[in-house]
Write the structure tokens for this entry.
Amino acid sequence: MNLGEAAGVVLQTEGKTIYHAGDTALFSDMRLIGEDAPIDLALLPIGEHFTMGPKDAAKAVGFLTPKRVIPIHYGTFPPLVGDPQQFASLAKGTGPTPSAT
């Protein structure tokens, strides 16, 4: 079953690089994105349903090695059960200290 293609955007502006993963799951080419340019900020979904959950998002931090991370797409309606504190705990030691806001 094909659930869609991985999609995200890399934005380079004013000397900073931002990666917004959109509504995507973990995919191995995130390593290539992280190698292409140092990422200052990554916005990663952690909702678990439709997207990565905290565990896969923590792996994405290891692939991307951003300086800062903001978890997104969680808690806005019942199926999106991802926990930002769990994400922050899992992501420790994989790169930056994630922001759990």
Summary: Residues 9-91 form a domain with the Metallo-beta-lactamase; Chain A fold (CATH 3.60.15.10). Strands lie at 9-13, 16-20, 41-45, 68-72. Helices lie at 30-36, 54-64, 84-91. The radius of gyration is 13 Å.
